[in-house]
Batch of 2 targets.
Target 1
Amino acid sequence: MVVLLGGSGYVGQAFQQLFREQGVPFRNVARKEVDYTEVAALADLLASTKADFVVNAAGYTGKPNVDACELHKAACVFGNAVLPGRIREACERTGTAWGHVSSGCIYTGERPGGGGFREDDAPNFSFRTNHCSFYSGTKALGEEVLTGAADCYVWRLRIPFNEIDSPRNYLTKVMRYASLLEASNSLSQLDEFVRACFETWRQRLPAGTYNVTNPGHVTTREVVDLIKKSGVCDKDFQFFKDEEEFMAKAAKTPRSNCLLDTSKLQNAGIAMTEVHEAVETALRKWRAE
Amino acid sequence: MVVLLGGSGYVGQAFQQLFREQGVPFRNVARKEVDYTEVAALADLLASTKADFVVNAAGYTGKPNVDACELHKAACVFGNAVLPGRIREACERTGTAWGHVSSGCIYTGERPGGGGFREDDAPNFSFRTNHCSFYSGTKALGEEVLTGAADCYVWRLRIPFNEIDSPRNYLTKVMRYASLLEASNSLSQLDEFVRACFETWRQRLPAGTYNVTNPGHVTTREVVDLIKKSGVCDKDFQFFKDEEEFMAKAAKTPRSNCLLDTSKLQNAGIAMTEVHEAVETALRKWRAE
């Protein structure tokens, strides 16, 4: 029995679909039903449902984008830094293994020396480096709160997408934004992400942090070229001149653009599609929500 | 009518005593009575009690000292960074003025160029500077969460003491610790602190941040000399050789030792006793809890 927290969100819904497809017994817990932000209530639930595993897909992301986190700081700190710590406490109290959806947005750029950031690299887009969005700061703080947690998987997601048009889908965003920022990024195909996350526990890999992104990285222009080639959208895509113009005209807080190293997951035998191929496939199957 | 949150704590009890002495109608709200960490519950309470002012003396300090915060990170983040934001929301929703007990421990050392840190100096002992205790990090984050809050006083306390022997009293700590760290600090005489805090609102000073410490600063050796001179304790006080030895032998996380500039409060006409005199007076009146 898997207990799913945050099952109504973009990532949570994908976990629900995965569990249904795989025939995994799960319980999607709504906060109004059981206030899982309270340690005692969650621990009771885990005991009464005899949960083997907990997936935390709950968190505060800001709508329509991370700029909103700058205006709702207490909610953002609570959802991303306090809640993981409370789930940890409930899981440790009941001896339950669990996984937490974290984010690669605690990094910016490439690893010094080139390539993607590894799981044990210190975040460089966080409160600690005093260069981050408030959102990224709280996600990094959440990982700090989970340091040393027992039987805890920390899964780092980056810019989710799949073939279903949605305001949360990166490909939809690229097609809808008036102007784009050119940058290199790791991405996570959403359905591959949730499958890979769940595999880390199903295969009983050592608990700890995993970068769960599609191997390789893409630039925004490459994504635009794939969109045009697919025929899904043929608009005249506009780009900001540089990050300075982007910040002045479109954003309230800096964005993380970064590469993650995926060798830990790959070496453990959990494969995800190369990122250009994953984007191409999503666009080929593109459909309305 | 003043609503007091955290009234059972060391600072909260001093607020209770002040209100009793001054005949200020107040309601000390216990969490088990009204869960004031929930915005809606607190807003309802403020409306139903027709509160004119809220004092937030609740927070997570760690027992017996800040080292405990390194082990209870989620609770520490919640009490010091999330709760102030929720109180802000409830107070803004109901149009209620309020004051928050913050801490000078978001600074270390002296202001660049000498003297004490002023209210608008950026914290230098915080997550943002990546040099802090977890406790200080969360207190600084709490001030960040309150940026731009309406009708909000942020009162910075430093190392409280008075004449009553107590594990939370700085003078008791100095007398009980096996070894001491020599450092310069601003201090807050507890009863003067709560009086000065309340005066900022009673006199309708502009809302904002106030350093509420006794003017001047003391070194640990000066405090020891005053203790010896008072006759309260004549033990052979031991000192660590330096901060390195202190960190190696006695502490899990670095301590803030800092000077605060008190001219904003003084210029507003709210006086506190010079710090050496305040320490001397407390020792002269020293009594058991």
Target 2
Amino acid sequence: MDEIKIFAPATIANISCGFDVLGCCLDTLGDEMIVRKSSVKGVRITKIIGEDLPLDTEKNVAGVAALALLKNIKEEYGFEIEIYKNIKPGSGVGSSAASAAGVVFAINELLNKPFTKLELVEFAREGERLACGSPIADNVAPAIFGGFTLVKSTNPLQIVELPSFKGLYATIIHPQIEIKTEDSRSILPRKIDLSLAVKQSANLGSLIHALHTNDYFLFSESLTDYIVEPHRSKLIPDFDKVKSNALKAGALGCGISGSGPSIFTFSKNIQTAYNVQGAINKVYEKNGIAHHTYVTKINIEGVKVL
Amino acid sequence: MDEIKIFAPATIANISCGFDVLGCCLDTLGDEMIVRKSSVKGVRITKIIGEDLPLDTEKNVAGVAALALLKNIKEEYGFEIEIYKNIKPGSGVGSSAASAAGVVFAINELLNKPFTKLELVEFAREGERLACGSPIADNVAPAIFGGFTLVKSTNPLQIVELPSFKGLYATIIHPQIEIKTEDSRSILPRKIDLSLAVKQSANLGSLIHALHTNDYFLFSESLTDYIVEPHRSKLIPDFDKVKSNALKAGALGCGISGSGPSIFTFSKNIQTAYNVQGAINKVYEKNGIAHHTYVTKINIEGVKVL
């Protein structure tokens, strides 16, 4: 195989009680990429459609992730990358992670899979280092493993692959506003009450138990964020109204995707997910904020060959 | 049935990454209680063997827990309680919880089980309120449910029953020193770094995943406490040496049981648990600190009828 076309999925990170550690993979929302072997060594980005992103390998998230992988092999050839972006950078659903995860997955396939998924996450997070200054793994891990993942530790990197519910859907709403990374970071307290940390961790533990036992009620009860959402939700217009509409329409939970501005919700089935879409669209239609919404299954495969 | 004899187990709370929420139930270490119906209404403690504890119902943990239960039934008779204490109060392995959990379990049996286990925890934690000023549930929950339990929430009370490993053993060492409750509380910071809270919660999540997937390696890797142990271990002589000896002898993990001074360790099998016992005994033998050690299976039943 000399060429491969893949789907690189969007992901939700910072899922409510799982700030910095819990993420999940989406299905129909994502980029496409074509990666092909080339007789010229190195990595070249030959085409980017959909967004205005740098073609310079060293300045492109996918380029940097590919280079991190290539350091670990001895091949006489190189790779060319075409990127078809659907995920808007800065939307909060793992745009850079999709590019980074997609390219390392694709090259691994072309090389006949010498690397484990964990190693692919290691390479992909070098792309995240370029994008946000830190080699975070909470978007690239679900993009590569699929389903729900827990970043147990970043040094050494340890990823826990969690089970998922069959038939779980996400509805995402993306208000077309920009949140500066520095604002979403600086609004968080550096120190938090020990009692809140205990409540938050009990919810994370319960959520993981709920995934293992197929307990929608407990999953829903555990989707609470005492620590981050009270601060970051101030940066998102009408967050509280979106959330209350989503829950009233039957969502199992609702929170900020990544560091926003997208808002995620989970639903038990596709019909509820569409009901939630209608209910949350209303909020931004009423106040005239431009927005996109997406309804998608939870993707338990991760990046996949098209 | 007019009389019942039960075993009321010791428990470990504050298991490493699960401060205030994660506990487990022990097997051979525990109290015995005899509870019988009486034609006289109310609750009377007729005998306490093994420890000097108050016979006055209102001042006794078991008495108060029994009264909490009795408020919820309409019976024409009362109950007499005999307590045979083996668990030393103040040792950190749930002495008061055993008395409280034992008595409400026993009365529920005599009444033909009108109450759920969750309701029994509600009653029993009134005993904890008497013992420590707060209706904590992280010892009474594992005493009543058995195995590992997570206190998801205290208001409303929500308990998650976790799976356990088959064949898991605990070795407990109890140095005969007193730690004042106020000291073990006041040594804890009220605020902690957000980054530490994230690491701690990832460990709690991983530990719960490990219990569900029978993953001893991950269980062991998750038994780390970034928040409480660094402070409270200062109150326990040679804690670090006990811990390093335990881990060298093959323990899966080691930490402070409850608020101490007992130290718990977990082992994969009984032989390792005894090896750990030998290794940690050496520490206190060398420095001349009086101590007891116990080797016990994890008890997945909780309180049981004898």
